[in-house]
Specification:
By secondary structure, this protein is an alpha+beta fold. The chain has four helices and four strands; from the N terminus they run ααβαβββα. It is elongated.
Length: about 140
């Protein structure tokens, strides 16, 4: 739940930034010339239409960057995943499997396997959660007591 809540916060911040960007852009644009006495400049004035399109593209770009950042975060602690390791090989695909890149949480919560090349369409990354990394050590220590 925390993972998707963080994504929701990022989307809300992007929406606030875009809501603040449009009045700034409107203040910088020249006043529109009325066409057939219609007050809405969007779609009738080229400069205003291009500005609205540019704001839309900026918003889409920010959402894509937020999604890309979210994809490479730990599902438990929300830290960025680290230590990319390439596994598999094209020349030894039957032996080692298809090439993938594995990322790991620095605190051992899990690993993310991302396909290196997507041949048959979009493939989803595979998140594998690991148990508590200290669980083994504490169970051995408690067994000695």
């Amino acid at each position: 739940m925390k993972y998707w809540g963080f994504m929701g916060v990022k989307v809300a911040l992007i929406a606030l930034a875009m809501r603040g960007l449009w009045p700034l852009v409107k203040s910088l644009l020249p006043p529109p010339r009325p066409f057939l006495y219609i007050g809405q400049p969007f779609g009738r004035d080229l400069v205003w239409t291009l500005a609205a399109g540019a704001c839309f593209l900026v918003g889409c770009g920010l959402l894509y960057l937020a999604w890309l950042d979210q994809r490479y975060r730990c599902r438990v602690c929300l830290r960025r995943l680290r230590m990319p390791v390439e596994t598999g090989s094209w020349s030894s695909m039957l032996q080692f499997g298809r090439p993938r890149i594995e990322y790991i949480c620095p605190y051992g919560h899990g690993t993310l396997e991302v396909p290196e090349v997507q041949i048959a369409g979009p493939e989803h990354a595979d998140w594998r959660a690991h148990g508590d990394i200290w669980e083994e050590l504490t169970s051995v220590e408690e067994a000695r007591r």
